[in-house]
Fold each of these.
Amino acid sequence: MIKAEAREYVLTERKCIDFQLLSKQVIKKIVEENILWNKEKIGLYYPLKWEINLLDLLNIYPHKKFYFPAIHYKMEFKIFDSLTSFIPGPFHTMQPMTETVDINDIDLIFIPCLATSKTKQRLGYGKGYYDRALESYQGVKIGICPSVFQNLDVEMEHHDIVLDFIIKE
Ligand code: ADP
Ligand code: MG
């Protein structure tokens, strides 16, 4: 299928998913598999209503440094200080107002995906923010997406970022 069909399919089907349960399962997996053991600087994201919520990682790993995306025309990553200081950004998300860092200072980034393809590429909402921001990113890219939307037979494009791992709940 083409990207637009895949987006329509996921946007409908994901409303039947228990994201609270899924979020717990994915966090458990990250902790049990010790995915962050040699990673100090972690890119996270503020979840939308129908996305897997990994914010508990902030409490589980209090000694690591976290970074969140913020959109100012383009997507940048900013230092995490406190969730209470986040302000509303575009697309119903929340973003920090702290300083922007060089993306290649971040060791590993968790990336929310609508779906992932058989080629391990990310399908997003259709704005391409992550594709542009991570175009020359050298660190580890971890896709976060319900297992049922992983490995879809969707035609991706050359600019779509390839994920290193995609976590299954
Ligand atoms: P998403 O990744 O959010 O699913 P798309 O991959 O369809 O969305 O990209 C949306 C738009 O962003 C497309 O028009 C695409 O050409 C543009 N785009 C994506 N990556 C780049 C890039 N690295 N450089 C320039 N334009 C890009
Ligand atoms: Mg893309």
Amino acid sequence: MDLPKHDLLIDGKRVPPGGGDYSTDINPADETPIARVAQGTAEDVERAVQAARRALKGWSGMRAATRGRILYRFADLLEAHTEELIALESLDGGKPLASVRRQDVPAVIDTVRYYAGWCDKINGQVVPTRPDALTYTVREPVGVVAAIVPWNFPLMIGMWKMAPALACGCTLIVKPAEITPLSALRIGELALEAGVPPGVLNIVTGKGSVVGNALVAHPGIDKVTFTGSPSVGRGIMQGAAANFKRVTLELGGKSANVIFADADIEAATRAAASGIFFNAGQVCSAGSRILVQRPVYDEVVDRLTARAKAIRVGDPAAPGTTMGPVVSAAQMKTVLDYVEIGKREGASAVAGGTRIGERGFYVAPTVFANVEHEMRISQEEIFGPVASVIPFDDEDDAVRIANGTAFSLAAGVWSRDIGRVHKIAGELRAGTVWINTYGYTDVRLPWGGSGDSGLGREHGDAAIENFTEPKAIWLSLRS
Ligand code: NAD
């Protein structure tokens, strides 16, 4: 069977890759090939950067309200193509259709509308300095942006970067993850259809070590916005230093979900289960460490075990499926290797711990009990459906364990004591803290972490700052 062939999107046109190579994109649900995807080269990056540089003046110089109108039209087109985007995202990444419908696509549309509204509100200030001068600031687009996107939320994380950059008047080259490139190519086409001019939004698919590297090294790129693993993020920061590109990094997590004995245990365990098993645990803010106060430890382990066993793992397209496969054979191996590490370290796998079936990359929802804080399964990001349940004694102990990894992306705290939850929220080292809930994100709130979780924030007005440079202007009033 002839597979659909996907070319690059450069300067408003679908073009074959310079080297003529295509990779085979695999459906993680059944391991069948679904498409041939262009493997971009450094020369393709060069062409895309030139196109983005040429398009910069027209896009950034456009009336802000007109740019906003184009982005609103883009959002409307995305909405009109909801079913197609849901199908594509589910097929490429193995996400259950129902969860893409409920979360990813609505969030993508919301993100575009939110930043469309920003276009004509990116103001400067008049700043009083001296009586004989008018001094004011403007915010100018940072320039040409490289957006490097991971595979766990290709549409949503891609749009978290594209929408604010476009609103600020920047032009972009987007590099989707090699294994989930399909939705980015499609939304690039829809952006063109909405009236985003050719060259403003270019999509170059291919390997991180080729396309990603070439983007980071290219002197024509002014900013890199990256979401992915800490090790690649470190390399990007080093590479960007060559010409002092601006860098925003959203990296990994090992988030703690802290459950005190006085919490609503039913609500806490329900949220803790979805906090780690949603998207098969492939979530940067997954609550992969569930910290439980000792008096309720056994009860929480039992409830989590029951919930893990009740999850309907299977075909993402089937109604009723609540968890699909992990994204690739490599990711499945990583997760199963960690399960073995956990067992060797002395933790008890009370649920899951195995592959399901022999076709498709399905891993059973896994709960480890008797986990100690120092174990590797408690310290390292697994990025799969594996919960480590760790006991604690009191508030100090909880905060010590919660803050005791290299990450700081997110955390949750559960208690009916309102004073306690505020105190603990203040003490947790995390970019986001959820109190008596877990996992929500909204483009209006800052998102990101520090340490191994990254550098800078996305969303809200933080993203507007990321994609603009302030300029101070002096006008003499002396006659
Ligand atoms: P990854 O770092 O392997 O890849 C991310 C992207 O970087 C891909 O597009 C990849 O092709 C590209 N890349 C790889 N090598 C590169 C190089 N040398 N130069 C430039 N680009 C390169 O990460 P992944 O496996 O796709 O995603 C999983 C990771 O992403 C996890 O660690 C997860 O926690 C993190 N993540 C973080 C957030 C967040 O918001 N903080 C969100 C989602 C995922």
